[in-house]
């Protein structure tokens, strides 16, 4: 299955998931760390609206085993932070694959910290998919948007270009192959064209790449982008080539999101905690997944009226 097909399978709400009380989600993302070494203007993480720390390892291992026992098949070892900041990332991948038994373990990174030796560590541990999030057309735009030193742009491109050789070496040694992918944000038409030039620099290093729209991050960002002539889209509508309707939002129905401190969130962009639906330090995953708060939110989404819910501002101008 291609990465685009996997993304589209999650963003499409199949009939069994069009309800208030749902079966276990196929996919969950878990926040190994909420920290990031970038401060991107389009990402509300840099606003620091909730604590940003690393997940306790014992909590990670307990929750991973519980979710796998409930039937979760795909685990993303990231959420709103940069997981390559975590010293034990390769061990987390190994635990997910070998101890918890997940068939598919995936990861998204900004690419700036995954030097070849770190890539080798996660590939050898059994990572199934690594996607690079590349959202800058050149070094000057990178400094303006990511708000860090320009040297990290070259590090990012260099690491991505190194990834395929490392992946292929590990595959030859172990027989395990990790898929390599890239995505980019098409802020507007011109940016989409410019990003294709960047993709040309790395296309031989990845198996597939695709475009995303500029999200409004649950209505936490957008003003600065709009001043530049960019128009963020409401909600999380998936890939640019296969946009979903904002309501009902697939993230409320088909994928779980666990924060570093064990909260189960209903949103891909829960930067401020307003989307917390349960607490996995005090209740089971399935109890949180079908909590009363979650059921009420799903009911509103199915009715396509999220007035008075945490999602109201996100889709206010749909």
Structure notes:
With 318 residues, the protein is of the alpha/beta class. Helix content is 35%, strand content 13%. The protein contains ten helices and nine strands. Strands 6-5-4-3-2-1-7-8-9 form a nine-stranded mixed beta sheet, sandwiched between helices. Helix 2 (57-70) packs parallel to helix 3, helix 3 runs parallel beside helix 4 and helix 4 (116-125) packs parallel to helix 6. The two termini are 32 Å apart.
Low-confidence stretches: none
H/I helix tally: 10
Structural class computed from helices and strand pairing? alpha/beta
Could you tell me the strand content as a percent range?
5-15%
Quickly describe the structure.
With 318 residues, the protein is α/β, with parallel strands linked by helices. The protein is built from ten helices and nine strands. Helix content is 35%, strand content 13%.
Explain the layout of strands and helices.
Layout: H1 3-11, E1 27-30, H2 57-70, E2 74-76, H3 89-99, E3 104-109, H4 116-125, E4 129-133, H5 139-146, H6 151-174, E5 179-185, H7 189-202, E6 208-212, H8 223-227, E7 255-258, E8 263-265, E9 276-279, H9 285-289, H10 292-302
Parallel strand pairs: 1-2, 1-7, 2-3, 3-4, 4-5, 5-6
Antiparallel strand pairs: 7-8, 8-9
Helix pairs in contact: 2-3, 3-4, 4-6
